[in-house]
What does this fold into?
Amino acid sequence: MLGIIGAMDEEVARLKEMIDGLQVTDKCGMSFYKGQIEGTDVVVVKCGVGKVNAAMCTQSLIDMYGVSAIINTGIAGSLDADIDIGDIVLATDTVEHDMDVSALGYEPGVIPDTELSVFKTSDELLKIAQDSVDAANIGVKVFTGRVVSGDQFIWSKDKKKWLVETFGGRCAEMEGAAIGHVAVLNKVPYLVVRAISDKADDSAEMDYPTFAAKAIENSVNMMTEIIKRYEVK
It folds into this structure.
């Protein structure tokens, strides 16, 4: 069974509408929508905004449904001038950019007392996503790279520059690395798919309301093609 996590209602509403044989289970303030999309067994859930909600949702998916893989779909702010609004970023790995214990001698993003601070995504899921690009017919560029996550909406050029220089991030959002953290610890393959809704610079407040809807549409179209190609283990 494939678990699909979005952060907001808009991100999962279209996917919920596609589910055949819908069953709904409520837990931890979240609704889990189980059924089939394109013949594939799926569970779709809105986790809510932020890393705690995302982590709690991911563990619930694993415990309740024993999902064989998890894909987090949603929107993000670009950290690269070549990645424009509407484009797609597929994560090769994720990092929690707001994990900061530098006062104790750790590098930014490093989680103390563990060797695990970078959460690699699934090569198989990444390949499936890349193979889905043409069929999705989204008419935008698709990039791969690091997704950085934190409980912050990134809007300033200075913060953008720091995220690029410190972590090599391609885009910034608020859930992916928390999902990756839980998935990797549970040995469940995962992927983060992000459609760009704003440039993560001083124009973010202006761009976000205008372009979020289009970014979500691209993300859903991409997800539909990924689901068609995914073989449940």
Summary: The chain has a mean pLDDT of 90. Residues 50 and 174 are 5 Å apart (CA to CA). Residues 204-229 form the longest helix (26 residues). Strands lie at 2-6, 20-27, 30-37, 40-46, 69-78, 88-96, 118-120, 142-149, 169-173, 190-198.
